[in-house]
Amino acid sequence: MTEDSGAPRLLKVRVKTAKKRTPSSNRWLARQLNDPYVAKAKRDGWRSRAAFKLIEMDDKYKLLKPGQRVVDLGCAPGGWCQVAAQRIGSADTSPRMVGIDYLDMDPIPGVIVLKKDFLDEDAPDTLFAALGGEKADVVLSDMAAPTTGHHKTDHLRTTHLCEVAADFARQVLKPGGAFVAKVFRGGTETELLAGLKRDYASVAHVKPPASRQESVEMYVVARGFRGGEG
């Protein structure tokens, strides 16, 4: 697999309308067919175009290092697991990458996949066991709540997911660790950001190039987990 995130130009593909498809489905299909990152992900063997978002953020912030232990919350279909496992050198003989999702996901070399809701009470203990009794160096979350089409509702639901993921990270991260999670622009995440700034040495809002320009998604990249200090 190549990790060059440069996206090639594609000739625009027109989508023929179909009676069974809604206008929104046609728009989604057209966007997929004309998205250079979708084509590049297929060509390079990544399971989703989202892999490039993590590649771009890691290239900038150097989050993933060989030998680390990493957790991916809501990991299906596995693009972020692929990237992280490759960059930390996780192998089947000594797996250091754990993905958690209640959805089915095909196996990935070097990744322990737990079919489980990370909100379950026993999820942290199950995770520790999967990591050999060690805490994680990095917690990743590309989760977003299913969209309703109502911007404020979608923002609040995804912000809540990020808040829960941040709380989970506090339980499983080792001091100095990092947390990366999806958020939506909207101005109501003040409390979330305040908590992250309290818990981590540095917090940044990031919109990687692979994130569609029209999308309201952004990511928080929090580094230097204080481990319950102060």
TrEMBL record:
<feature type="binding site">
    <location>
        <position position="101"/>
    </location>
    <ligand>
        <name>S-adenosyl-L-methionine</name>
    </ligand>
</feature>
<dbReference type="GO" id="GO:0005737">
    <property type="term" value="C:cytoplasm"/>
</dbReference>
<dbReference type="InterPro" id="IPR029063">
    <property type="entry name" value="SAM-dependent_MTases_sf"/>
</dbReference>
<keyword id="KW-0698">rRNA processing</keyword>
<feature type="domain" description="Ribosomal RNA methyltransferase FtsJ">
    <location>
        <begin position="46"/>
        <end position="225"/>
    </location>
</feature>
<protein>
    <recommendedName>
        <fullName>Ribosomal RNA large subunit methyltransferase E</fullName>
        <ecNumber>2.1.1.166</ecNumber>
    </recommendedName>
</protein>
<dbReference type="Pfam" id="PF01728">
    <property type="entry name" value="FtsJ"/>
</dbReference>
<dbReference type="InterPro" id="IPR015507">
    <property type="entry name" value="rRNA-MeTfrase_E"/>
</dbReference>
<comment type="function">
    <text>Specifically methylates the uridine in position 2552 of 23S rRNA at the 2'-O position of the ribose in the fully assembled 50S ribosomal subunit.</text>
</comment>
<feature type="binding site">
    <location>
        <position position="80"/>
    </location>
    <ligand>
        <name>S-adenosyl-L-methionine</name>
    </ligand>
</feature>
<comment type="similarity">
    <text>Belongs to the class I-like SAM-binding methyltransferase superfamily. RNA methyltransferase RlmE family.</text>
</comment>
<dbReference type="InterPro" id="IPR002877">
    <property type="entry name" value="RNA_MeTrfase_FtsJ_dom"/>
</dbReference>
<feature type="binding site">
    <location>
        <position position="78"/>
    </location>
    <ligand>
        <name>S-adenosyl-L-methionine</name>
    </ligand>
</feature>
<keyword id="KW-0489">Methyltransferase</keyword>
<feature type="active site" description="Proton acceptor">
    <location>
        <position position="182"/>
    </location>
</feature>
<dbReference type="InterPro" id="IPR050082">
    <property type="entry name" value="RNA_methyltr_RlmE"/>
</dbReference>
<feature type="binding site">
    <location>
        <position position="142"/>
    </location>
    <ligand>
        <name>S-adenosyl-L-methionine</name>
    </ligand>
</feature>
<feature type="binding site">
    <location>
        <position position="117"/>
    </location>
    <ligand>
        <name>S-adenosyl-L-methionine</name>
    </ligand>
</feature>
<keyword id="KW-0963">Cytoplasm</keyword>
<keyword id="KW-0949">S-adenosyl-L-methionine</keyword>
<dbReference type="GO" id="GO:0008650">
    <property type="term" value="F:rRNA (uridine-2'-O-)-methyltransferase activity"/>
</dbReference>
<keyword id="KW-0808">Transferase</keyword>
